[in-house]
Protein 1
Amino acid sequence: MQLRRILMSPKRGDELKIAVRTMYLPSQYMQGKGAIYYLGQKARPYGNRAYVIGGGKALAAAGDRVRKSLESNGIEVAKWDDSVKECTHATINRLVDSGKHANAHFVVCVGGGRAIDTAKAVAWKLKIPAIAVGTQCASNADASSESVVYTEDHKFLEVMALSRNPVMVIEDTEIISKAPVKYMVYGMGDALSCKFEGEAYAKARAKKKDGIVPTGAALALGDACYRSLMEHGVAAITDLKNGIHSHAVDEVIEAVKLSSALAFENTGCALAHALHNGLTRTGLVMGEHGEIVAYGTIVQMIYEGRPKEDIRNVISWCDRVGLPTKLKKMGNPSKSALKQAVEYASEKDHNAHNMPEKVKPSDLLAAMDSLERGV
Ligand SMILES: [Zn+2]
């Protein structure tokens, strides 16, 4: 019956239900020192008029290189906007309106998650390709085909499924390694979740038999991301703090920017993000997205009954890179706030449906308790 409805009037996202195995991918990913200088050459097949959109800081740091690379390849900068502060519908619509008259052939999205998500949505609404240029490592938005939309005061509103990834993703490691170290810590915290959430999602799909099957490739990327973080994460943070751009730094950038992006968007979020959403809704939990997700990942591992040795490894890794593993490092929310958070995470948050079994608030609270007491 559902298949018939889909065939008669397909909606966005339906292809995931009938095509059994689907994978969203960018056409090319480039990473390395000076990779930004390839921008113009790589963008040429997409046209000769660029609409450059980014955050103020990102374009102050990388804007000259973006412009030079485009112009030296015969691409005109038809419009330049460095005003993005937050990914809101109002900003997206304003940039779409002003972009309509520029007749740009593609959008160059420059910056961190908020600027990239905004610019990707603008490109999608203008029906032209997006090219993403990351300037820091806090987010895995660059390669993905989704934009996370917030209110003006940074409250989560919705995820826009764009149904198309950026055609090019360029990560200049020289630029990224000069961004504040904390950004890489946050990016790793968010990326840590993709293996565990992806595996839970795959189990849930197999159990619920709803026709959606994630690719083995997406699950393998989640696993590769996790292994890389465990192997190189601590060294990368130590090296960045000492101003060294090392092999470990490059490995972590790839784990966050490529592996985790393709893993998360080709599987689904689960308990770690559900708990993040429950905790942040209380207004009493402090921390960046990646910090709270890392904590949520450990809780999910305990909830799932993963081997103690694996859980302890992740806790010790989080401690060493500077991600929170205890509630006292996240504002020490009250018991009633925690109760409210687990109820929301288990019953209302859509990500909880990607767990193989119905999540029980009491079990989730018990998993959090056990993390507080020490695994
Ligand atoms: Zn996340």
Protein 2
Amino acid sequence: MGVLGRSGIFVGCVAAFMTLLPQNPHRDNLLANISSGKTRVLDLSYAINDKLVPWPGDTRVFEAQVNATVEKNGYFTRSFWMLEHYGTHLDAPIHFPPGTVTVDKIPTKQLFGPAVVIDVRAEAVKDADYLLSVARVEEWEKRNGRIPEGAIVLLRTGWAARWPDAQRYRNEDAHGQMHFPGFSVEAVKVLMERKISGLGCDTLSADYGASADFAVHHLALGAGLYQVENLSDLSGVPEAGAFLIVAPIKLEGGSGGAVRVFALVGESEVKK
Ligand SMILES: [Zn+2]
């Protein structure tokens, strides 16, 4: 590799490192550069309708009805009903014990943070029951530095490619047991040591599909983290350097709810 190539990598590494530092000019530019288009804003949420993949057993998921029409009323409004946990949604800590915080009470600063993307697509193709290992977390840190405090850690399994095909997305076996990858308790313990703000995944659950005890739910939500589930395709989000804005519906007393997740991706972080 020539001198130019090496310096290119060096500049890239510095840029990636800079974005992880708080109060650095680069991070500030992420927001300032939205209007010019230099910063790309990716929407990681699915549009809500009644055709999304529900949790097994959920039959009534979403209904919308027209209340007023321009023709009849001069304006257009609808009303809707939906599950709190449907489509791209957030699990508030109170969703599983010993968590207590409802969705409206999640501290706002916890909803903004550096995106850490751990790509386990290769493992997931080989093993639908794959659990994120501590080794993979350490491997990410070897390349990108220590996972920063306040990070939102996203598990990219590739399962979004199966959406919204319920059969392929849930991947149930003959006994009705689901099979898709997830976080492991061991890996989440390491992430909690890093003082992250939340977890996210492109599957139906932060726990793997075959989980019977929802150990990650109990552990992470119990510690006051939140989980974002059914994120859309994460292919545009680099493994480090993007910034996430997590905006859940502010349902008073809610166990969670529909969430809009935005990833801010700077020019220098466009997928390597
Ligand atoms: Zn949920």
